[in-house]
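Reading a protein record of the kind used here takes little practice once its layout is understood. An example of such a record is reproduced below.
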Amino acid sequence: MEQPRGVPVPRTEHWQCISGCGSCCRLDPALRGDAIAALDPDQQELYFAMVGEDGWCRHFDTGSRRCRIYEERPDFCRVDQLVALFGQPGDDPDALAIASCRQQICAELGGRHPVMRRFLRTIRQPS
């Protein structure tokens, strides 16, 4: 059935972070050139200081797969800042966050990894 014109299409996906993922904490500059280019010089300096020898954020606990500074993390680590930092005027924050997470999870863990399946289930649940 076709949606009548002017009636908003109901959203079927709503962004939500899932615990135990951490794919966005992979900060390897060789993999994140576009993201780094979008940051201002002060943000870039902080970003590079956060990159560990293995390319992961120094504040990412690989055992628990959690951020050790979550409450104090920089703005470029906050999903609510994605549109301001990387989007275009009018971008849907949920859509941008979902696309970013899908891309990062797929790049780090693969598209069939249990984390990806859990993320997809989570974003498809009614909010």
Q: What stands out?
A: The chain has five helices and two strands. Residues 23-124 form one domain. The beta strands are 60-61, 66-67.
